[in-house]
Amino acid sequence: MRFKGLLGTVAAVLLGLAAPAEAETGEIRLAEQFSMGYLQLNVMKHQKLIEKHAKAAGIDAKVSWFKFNGPTAVNEALISDNIDIGSGGVPGLLTLWARTKGTSTEVRGVAALSSQPFLLNARDPRIKTIADFKDTDRIAVPAVKSSVQAITLQMAAAKAFGIKEFEKLDHLTVSMTPPDATVALMKGGAQISAVFSVPPFQFEQLESPDVHTVLNSYDVMGGPHTFTAVWTSARFRDRNPVLYKTFLAALKEATDIANKDKRAAAAYWIEDSQSKLPLDKATQIVSGSQVRWTMVPENTMKYAEFMVSVGRLKVKPTAWTDYFFAEIHGEKGS
Three-state SS for 114? Predict the structure, then answer.
């Protein structure tokens, strides 16, 4: 991980902007979602890293956490000023960036959180590819039309059936939280046929001998891609420059911890989610060969290009740096 320049910037701000810090709100409200894709947030919460770095900057920070399911709920909370930091899949960030671009509340990414695949798992042995779904089948996703899983399913449909058919499977999708979708899939019956899920739930599903993987998001994207990211508004960043830098420093430290002590990070996730997943299994998942805990955006432009091509994004970015704030621009993102 390379963030020496970023940390140097953070240190300079913490040392040099003590006076303006008194005018800042001193409060930061963060969104998190279901899955292990937000592991650094679990670390930050348990080790109080935001509070730690804010205190070093002379701010007695109040930190609040809120859990949402799907990007629409996160983005509406951010726009309505009920949270300060949003999190989710790249399409959620792109959607809000395009919606707010050029306004005082323009939203951009702060950093990525992870690159890791998510899996489309099915119970019916008849379903071997997405071409095998019938009109009577139902596919659970965290949020229809808007979640990263829903957009990735559209991308897969465009590849399989042609770009004009990108919505071919949309009428089969239903919104369900990953825990509820996992229970439904494991139980069987007619409620749902498949789940486009998130870790660790996708791996819990595969513990059943009746469940198999139909699609891996890395296959759709042609390789590794950012799964989760965090974003905020220019308004929050401009009004709270020191607090913003302390959040970046806390995120960098949490990313380092997630990479160095995956077992501890997995334990934090288990406690926060009240999961019954054994710690050894959770540690195995966060240590997976296809999993990277990194603040560097990866292959995010593929989402942007697809969403523009099908009219889901009205503003076309020229590069990933258009929708991420400048502090991360020195990294080799994509």
Answer: strand
